[in-house]
Amino acid sequence: MNFKGHITGGIVTGAALTGSAVLFSEPLGVPAPPLVLAQIFSITILFSLFPDLDISSIPQRWFFRVIFVILLGLSYHEYYEEATLLALVAITPLLDHHRSWTHNIFSVLIFPVAMAGIYEYLLMKKQFFYDWSTDQLMLHLQNHIWLVAACIVGWYTHLFLDSLPKFKQSGHH
Ligand SMILES: [Zn+2]
Question: How crowded is residue 33: how many other Cβ atoms within 10 Å of its Cβ?
Answer without folding.
Answer: 9
